[in-house]
Amino acid sequence: DAGVIQSPRHEVTEMGQEVTLRCKPISGHDYLFWYRQTMMRGLELLIYFNNNVPIDDSGMPEDRFSAKMPNASFSTLKIQPSEPRDSAVYFCASSHMWARLSSGANVLTFGAGSRLTVL
Amino acid sequence: RKEVEQDPGPFNVPEGATVAFNCTYSNSASQSFFWYRQDCRKEPKLLMSVYSSGNEDGRFTAQLNRASQYISLLIRDSKLSDSATYLCAVSTGGGNKLTFGTGTQLKVEL
User: Fold this and answer.
1) Which of B84, B99, B6 is nearest to B45 (CA)?
2) % residues pLDDT > 70 (chain A)
3) Which residue in B86, B88, B96, B105 has the most chain A C-beta atoms within 10 A of its own C-beta, making it the best mutation to test that interface?
4) Do B51 and A100 touch (CB under 8 A)?
5) Which of A52, A61, B81, B85 has the smallest number of Cβ neighbours within 10 A?
6) Rounded to 5 degrees, what are φ and ψ at A77?
7) Each residue's pLDDT tens digit, A7-54
8) What gap in Å lies between CA A48 and CA A56, rounded to an integer?
9) For chain A, which residues lie within 8 Å of any Cβ of chain B, measuring from their own Cβ?
């Protein structure tokens, strides 16, 4: 398996532009998570999906952020309009319900991340 | 108070040393606990789960203290390759939602 695939790996954009980050989870995984990591705040959960349905979006900072999962193999995180304070590394992660039950652990597999810089 | 707290470090230790990190969590209903390792400019990767009775994986030992609401990670015989940031993660409630600490940076030196 290729693992969790994210694109783009790096994005530099100007304030006010729309940013779309993409994620392909591991095939068969039924949970998908979007995290944001900054030096100041660490790794923060933005939203997660189970079977393509958003379960908890309480971490989404404001209405400028939106996430979709139209099918089991694709998700997007969109920021419109972007601001300099959105600069961060955005990670997508996926996991499987059975991984949790078999080991008692919620095993997340992370993608390599999308490093966003908003000027 | 943050849900999960860690000392950011850095911890600078000589090769071969034993080093321990603690991580405290605020929600007594937390159910599952983990240590993840993150190399510079890379994604976090699961290092080990933390079980109630404590568990060991080679040079790494993880322990859980529910009464005091903390988990610990002990690394024996540190290697240069252990240099990384160690993130603790806690799951509360149903589902797979994990809350991470900000990480503790370890630097192992010659």
Assistant:
1) B84
2) 91
3) B96
4) no
5) B81
6) -120, 125
7) 999 999 999 999 999 999 999 999 999 999 998 889 999 999 999 999
8) 6
9) 31, 33, 35, 41-45, 48, 50, 55-56, 91, 95, 97, 100, 103-108, 110-113
Confirm or reject contact between B64 and chain A (CB < 8 A).
Answer: no
Q: Cα torsion for A19, A89, A96, B25, to the nearest 10°?
A: -130
Given a contact cutoff of 8 angstroms between Cβ atoms, the answer to whether A41 and A87 are in contact is no
**Neighbouring C-beta atoms of residue B40, cutoff 10 Å:** 8
Helices and strands (DSSP H and E) totals, chain B: 0, 11
Report whether B48 contacts B60 (CB < 8 A). Answer: yes
Q: Mapping DSSP to helix (H, G, I), strand (E, B) and coil, where does residue A5 land?
A: strand
